[in-house]
Each structure stands twice: as C-alpha cells, then as structure tokens.
Amino acid sequence: MQDKDNSPYQSGRAKNIGRRRLMQAAGAVGFSGTVLGGLLGAAAPARAAAFDPKKYAGTRLSILMIGGEGDERALADLLPQFEAETGIKLEISAPAIGPLIEKTVQVLKADSPSFDLVNYLGFLTTQQVGGGYFDRLNDLIDNPAETPADWDFKDFIPATVDNVGRFDLKAHKKGGNDIYGIPGLHSGSVIYFYRKDLFEKAGLQPAKTWDEFQAAAKTLHTDQVAGASFIGANDSSLTLVDWYTRFLTIGGSLMSGDPNGKDFRPHVDSAESVAALQMLIDLLPYAPKNVTQYGYSENVDAFSVGKIAQMIFWSTIAGQVFDPDKSSVADVTGTTTVPAAIGQKARAVQGGWGTGNPKNSDPAKKAAAWRALTWITNKQVNRYELGKYNIDASRVSAFRDPEIVAKYPYVTDSAAAIASAEAIPTALIDEFFQMNDAMTVEFNKALIGGQDAKTACAAVQAKWIEILRKGGHLT
Amino acid sequence: MDGGTVAAQRLIGIAQRARPRPNADAWLLAGPCLLYLVAFAIYPLIYSLRLSFTDLTAADASGRWVGLANYEYMLRDPLFWNALKNSAIMVTITVALQVVLGVALALFFNLRLRGSWLVRGILVLPMLITPIVTGLMWRALLNPDWGLINWCIARMGFEPPNWLGSVEMAMKTLVLVDVWQWTPFVFIIVFARLQALPQDVFEAAQIDGAGPFSAFTHVTLPLLLPAIGFAAVFRAVDSFRSFDLVFGLSYGGPARSTTTLSFFSFQNGFQFQNYGYAAAVAYAMLLILVVGTTILLRYVRLRPGDSR
Questions:
Q1: Are A132 and A252 part of one and the same domain?
Q2: What local confidence, expressed as pLDDT, does residue A43 receive?
Q3: A247 vs A196: CA distance, rounded Å
Q4: Which one of A166, A274, B65, B108 is least enclosed by Cβ atoms within 10 Å?
Q5: Residue B63 located in a structural domain
Q6: Which one of A127, A293, A445 has the shortest CB-CB distance to B58?
Q7: Dist CA B272 CA A470 (whole Å)
Q8: Of B165, B270, B271, the CB nearest to A290
Q9: How many domains is chain B built from?
Q10: Where does the pLDDT of residue A22 fall: very low under 50, low under 70, confident under 90, or very high at 90 and above?
C-alpha cells in the first residue's frame, strides 16, 4: 500500500506547481529512477521467485470497459503481447459511456457471472463500489505470487487511487485502506487549451485568471474564430467541466456536511455559484454561435479546425487536438493549467476510470482476472496509452517518461491537473447523475436565455434539496 | 334401446376415449406461445408492478417495499407532469398532421397519375428506417454548424431556425421528424382502403347528381373512416411511447422541452438508477394508454357499420 509522499502528484491537497518545476522534477526523478531501478532490479528476483506469469494460461476472460475513449484501441493493440506473456485470452466488450453504465449496473447485479473485469466511471465509485459489487483487492496486491514485482501500486497517482480505489464499505464513503478498484485504464482532469499563434499575434499571455480569460475572448473573437468556447449543451460536462472549474477556482464550496449524515447541504445558490454561471453567460457573445448546442465532440471538432481560440476541457482531448492528421492546429496549440481567481489554487474536477473484479464473477477465474488486471494497468500499458493515443495515464511513471514528455509537452499540465484535481462532492452519493442532470438542464436553460443565472441556481438548489431529502442525506 | 345400438354406443365411447382429448391438443399447441407470453410479457409486467412499489436503486439492491410512495411522489413531481404534457402535445399534433397528410397523399395517389408508383415507393422509405437512426440522421441534417438543411436555408438567404437549440423550436422539430417518418404509414393504410372501396356506391352517387366534393364528403370519407381510425389509434399509441426518436434527436432537451414520458422513465431507470420510480412512471404510462385506447376505440369506428 502506498503512503502519502511529498511528490507533486500528491492527491487533492497537492501543491500548485509550475510546468518548469514539474519538468525539473521529472528529470530528477527520471535520473534517480534509473539509479533506483538498478538497485531494485537486483532485489526483485527474490520477490519474483514465486511469481509464475503463465500460471493461468489457457483461461478465457472477458472485460466490460469504456469504448470510444481510446482505451479499447490501446488494449486491442496490446492483446497479442498480453496473450503471449500470460497465456490468457481476454475478450473485450467496449460500449459507449451511456450503454456501458446501463450494462454495468445489470452485470453487477446479476446472479450469474458474465464479466471477469468491469470498468467503472470515477463518478460512480460510490454507487458501484459502495454498492458492494466488487472484490476487495488488498490481499492480491500484497501477494507476490499473484502480483508481478514490477507492477508497483505506489506508482499510481494517489488522487486517482482515492477517486476510484479506496472505499470504506462500512461507513459507505470513499477513503480508508481497502482497495476495490485499480485506476485506469485512463484518468483525466481539465486543462486549458489555447491557440498559441493567436495569443502571440494579439500580444496576450494565456489567461491566469477568469477576468483575463474573458478579456482574451473579447480580444481574439472574430467572425472566423470564436474568442472562447465551452460545453453549453444539455451535457453533463457543462456542469462538471465548465461551471465546476470556475466555481471551484473562485472559492466556491459545493456541499457541506456529511454525505452519510442528514446534513449534506448544497450551496448552489451561493454567490460563487451564480458568478460561475454568469461567467459562462458573459462568454456567449464571444463563443461559437451555436455554443448552447456544443457538447464534447462539437467543441473538439471546432477547436481542431481552428474555430476556437481558447477553452478549458478534459485533458483527454489532446489525442485529437495534437494529432496533425485530425487537427489543423496541432502545432499551434498550447496548454496550461486552468485559470483561477487571485489567491485560489488552479484545479478542476477529477475524472477517470477504475477497474475491478466483480463479486459475482466466476470464482474459478478470479485469480486469473487479477493477473489480467495487473497486466492491463501496468507501467508499459500506461505508457503506451499516453504515448500512442494521448490518453491520460493513471501512473506517475507514464507522465514522467522523458520520451513522452519531450514529444507531448502538454502531459506535464495533464499530470499536474490530475494530481491536483478534486472529486466532486456530489459523486459521494448515489444520486450523483440525477443531481447533475438537474443542474445541467437549468444551466443550459440559462444559457439559451430562458432564465438568469440567479434563478437557475436557485432552481437547482431547490431541486437538489428535494433529491437529497428523498435520498435521506438531508433533513 | 336394442343390443346393436348399445354396442355401437359402446364402440363410439371407446373410440372417443382412445382419441387424445381436445384439451390436451390445445394446450400442446398453445403451450409454447403461452410460455413465451408468461416469460416475456406477463412475468415482466408483474415484476415491474412489484418494482414500482419498492425503492430499488443500483446502490441499494434490497428494494424495500414503499407502498404507493413512488406513485405519490410522481403526482407531486413537476418533471412527470412536464413529460406528460410533452407526450400529450406530441401525440395530438403528430397524429393530427399524419392523418391529414396521409389521407391527402392517399387521395392524390389514387388519381393514378403516370409514374406515381415510383413516387409512392419512395414515399414509404422513411417508415423503413429505425427511429433511432432517423433521430441521429436528422440531428446531423439539422446541425447548426454543418447540417445540410441549415446550409441550404442559408444559401437561399434565410436565417436557419435554431432547430434543436431553443425551447420554442425543439418540440416542433421533433413533431416534424415524426411526421416525416410516419405519415407514410397512414398513407399506406388509407390508400389500401381506397383501392378496395366498392365502385357501385360512387356510381350511385354520380347518378344521384353528387359532385366531386359532395361524393368525397358523403361517400369516400365515411367509407375511409374505419381505416383512418385504425391508423390514428395505432399512431397515437406508437407516438405516446416514442422513445428512440427523442433519444437520437433531442435527448429530451433543451430544458426538458422534449422529454416525453418514455424518455423520463428511461432517465429515471437507466441514468439515475431509480428503478422503483421508473417502474411507477412506466405503469402510469400503461394506465394512460389503456384508458386512452379504450376511449379512442369507443369513439372510432374500425369497421363499417360499427355502432358508436
């Protein structure tokens, strides 16, 4: 089990570090890692002696995982190697996010086994891990006969383990020492994408504060290029990415009280909440004309063809934005951490996935499933995903890979964002999606002119209180 | 009764006993069908009814019995009433438009103009597309940035409407697409009936001096009413439970302006994992459908000569 360390990857409470510092740290760690690696390499055989990589050869396993976000392509690329090294056959089932969530619920609740490994969204950790549907993994992690010596649990970014791995079933809340899921296949948070060429031409620096972001949007806006964009559609990322990042970084606090008590109270009607939504409304004149219908793909496509000057977005879009075959602005796009109000730490919501062994999976295959899980979350797979498909890894070592850092400078920003990201407090209860939907609908309505920011926030506050009361989280 | 008769009756009795009982035959033949019905219709109906009285969620698999709480909450839930209103709007407007357009098209094609068979064939194509694909296809066609329809409108010098992005337009767009897809259904039903109308009544009307309009209103339309009624009832039921078109086209938005009851039930069941509440909404839909269809069938004549 890992201990908290002082690395820049320290979870939620991390220091806010600059790119230069991170690069220096990466270089230093890379060097010391090489030296340490040599030392550890000598000691490794003693631990690896009991480990037989082909112990479960001939087993057929199946994994239910997210499709359309790149992971399944990376895994499919590596399957021949996986089969050669382990002798295990792994069948991938990778529906898109909506169908995946529906299917996962059915799979986990079924009496008979269907999948040996299941991928779940970090936002659903409380619901799915907290529902008691996954096996506790601590004994396997600590068992040298079942876990490869070089798998290195401590290498996972602590914030990702906190987000999808640790859960206290008794207290029904995240945290504690019991591990039920392994981060991955990918993680992610929100970073700031901007057009270096346009900023340079206008003599601007990437925005450090939201006032600067708004000013840059106004300055850079033309008929051809929108000064800024955001997710304005009736899409969960409107609230998770655009509103929540602004809310957090101007000092907002979404919930207070204990999610398992009767005092879990929302603060959506706070001044910070209204201000964060108002920021989006104020951006409308400088956003793409149809931004209120822009979801994930519309924004990524528009940015990739050069129609957007700046936006904050899930860091996972880097795969498309920096691919010259898919993006006409690949070589003129820059990234940095999200803006924040003066005195506030730049940070955003923690995204990403976890993978675990369902409790109802075939008991005869559980050990083999763990073997497969350690393989698909190993350092090499993390590096491959990040290097080949620009999918944010869950491991520190991938983000510190000198080759990847040299090729894709944005990964330092991604790493910093993931390390400092915070899990949204509403994800601590089962009603997360319902609450998010209520907020998205009202905020989208405000953006299309149906109501002002204050009214929208008040409506969400009322709806959330109703949901929380119904769920027994608030009296 | 003589001995011969007694012997004959005895023989008949033996033959009857030797033959498999008609009841057993019936059960054997109907068995698979009944099993299918029990497994895929009756059991799910009973299961979901039971579900609607529980608070089953994904996280809490216990599903405690909560009595009528879900139904009680539903009646207080403004989102349920919003979805019911949207469903009612959708059913009323789409069915009315489809009936008017479908009948008009059937009458037009009944003129048997040259080449009409080809146009007729093309006309029914939308009906053959899966509704989810229809939704996605129209979503692409109406895309505000690169959609073909907006491009055409802009090329003609007009400002394209905000098809799916405004509360005012989204329901109209949904209705438009549904009408595009299902008017051919009404057309086919009415056209088939038109082809089968007896000619003697038209000849009699002509002899009695009826003009084209009078013949239409007093002969054609009354004879078509059963077909129109059938098509309307069928479309009303189908439109009321419309889910896939909403899912593919508007996803219930913006601001829940196109959230129908089916979509609302789906959201509660599969997005929010409130299975109990979703089942209650589904049962409310079933109740509305049963009551609505019964009333419709009471007032719509499906066969000529049916009394009202």
A1: no
A2: 43
A3: 26
A4: B65
A5: no
A6: A127
A7: 13
A8: B165
A9: 2
A10: very low
Is the pLDDT at A370 greater than 90, yes or no? yes
- Three-state secondary structure call for residue A264: coil
Q: A356 and A345, same structural domain? A: no
C-alpha dist (Å) from residue B283 to A87, B53, B176 = 50, 11, 28
Pseudo-torsion of CA B264, B268, B271, B274, nearest 10°? -170
Instruction: Say if residue B201 is in the same domain as residue B100.
Output: yes
Same domain? A304 vs A165: no
Mutation pick from A441, A463, A466, A468 vs chain B, by most beta carbons of B within 10 Å, is A441
Query: Using the beta-carbon criterion (under 8 Å), do A234 and B164 form an inter-chain contact?
Result: no
Mutate to test the interface with A, among B168, B271, B277, B281 (most CBs of A within 10 A): B271
Separation CA B33–CA B52 (nearest Å): 27
Structural domain including B29 reads 3-42
Q: Cβ distance B285 to B294 under 8 Å?
A: no
Give the chain B residue nearest A445 (alpha carbons). B255
pLDDT tens figures, B211-223:
888 988 899 999 9
| Chain B environment of A437 (Cβ under 8 Å) | 267, 271-272
| Chain B nearest C-alpha distance from A263 (Å) | 20
Q: Cβ distance B205 to B166 under 8 Å?
A: no
When scoring B54, B142, B145 by the number of chain A Cβ atoms within 10 A, the one with the most, hence best to mutate, is: B145
Question: Do A143 and A241 share a structural domain?
Answer: no
pLDDT in tens, A420-465: 998 899 988 888 989 999 999 999 999 999 899 999 999 999 999 9
Q: How many CB atoms within 10 Å of residue B263?
A: 23
Q: What is the pLDDT of residues A79-129, one digit of tens each?
A: 999 999 999 999 999 998 888 888 888 888 888 878 999 999 998 898 889
**Strand bridging mode A60-64 / A117-121:** parallel
Q: Are A232 and A354 found together in one domain?
A: no
Residue A315 pLDDT > 70: yes
Per-residue model confidence (pLDDT) at position B27: 85
Q: Which residues of A touch B252 (CB under 8 A)?
A: 234
Paired strand residues for B65 = B54
For the record, the structure tokens of B111 come out as 């003129």
Cβ–Cβ of A445/B255 closer than 8 Å?
yes
Let me know whether B80 and B36 are in one domain. Answer: no
What percent of chain A clears pLDDT 70, i.e. is strictly above it?
Answer: 90
**Count of CB pairs separated by less than 8 Å, A with B:** 73
In the predicted structure, residue A12 carries a pLDDT above the cut 70: no
Tell me which DSSP letter residue A126 carries: I
pLDDT at residue number B116: 80
Condensed to tens digits (0 to 9), the pLDDT of residues B170-194 reads: 999 999 999 999 999 999 999 999 9
> Which residues from chain B sit within 8 angstroms of residue A290, using beta carbons?
144-145, 162, 165
Helix (H), strand (E) at residue A190: strand A190-195
Token pair for residue A416? 């910093």
Q: Report helix angle B275-299 to B221-240, nearest 10.
A: 170
CB B308 within 8 A of CB B301: yes
Q: Could A234 and B255 be called an inter-chain contact, meaning their C-beta atoms sit closer than 8 Å?
A: yes
Shortest CB distance from A448 goes to which of B145, B165, B273?
B165
Residue where the block lists tokens 């023989």: B11
Give the highest mean pLDDT range of A15-29, A408-422, B6-20. Answer: A408-422
Average pLDDT over residues A268-297: 95
Out of A105, A234, A433, the one facing B254 most closely (by C-beta) is: A234
CATH of the domain at A60: 3.40.190.10
